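Handout, page 2. Input:
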Amino acid sequence: MTDDAYLFLADGSATLLGTPVAAVGELTCLETPAVRAWLDAHGVTAASAALRLLPPEETGSIPDGVEKLPVPLSEEELIRLRHALAPGALAGVEEELLAYRDCTGERDALLSRAVAAGVPPHRIAELTGEDPEIVASVAADAKAGESRGRR
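Output:
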């Protein structure tokens, strides 16, 4: 197994492997001189249906003899790639998990804003479903921050 994803040119036997690059969205690696030269050498563009992409854990399934190129992807690019490869029902659940991640990443800031706005901690816990102890902890941190700011 490699740490790199692979771009490859799908031939008749590899057409069901991977996902078209266009389905993954913008990829930083497509702008590198090495990838641009490889695409030019094979006469394809990033929009070509024959240009496919596989994540590191699946690159062993690329048949021998297929033109391929290892490419580094960011964590966000890998998430998008794996999501593009997921079956329909799984993709829907993954969308929900990504939305949850995005939402919870801002949790403490939102709880702090609610405390600063004067929403009582017990009401914040009711509205968010968060553990009351977590809300109380964030509220205490927010109040401590206000006290330091007034000095």
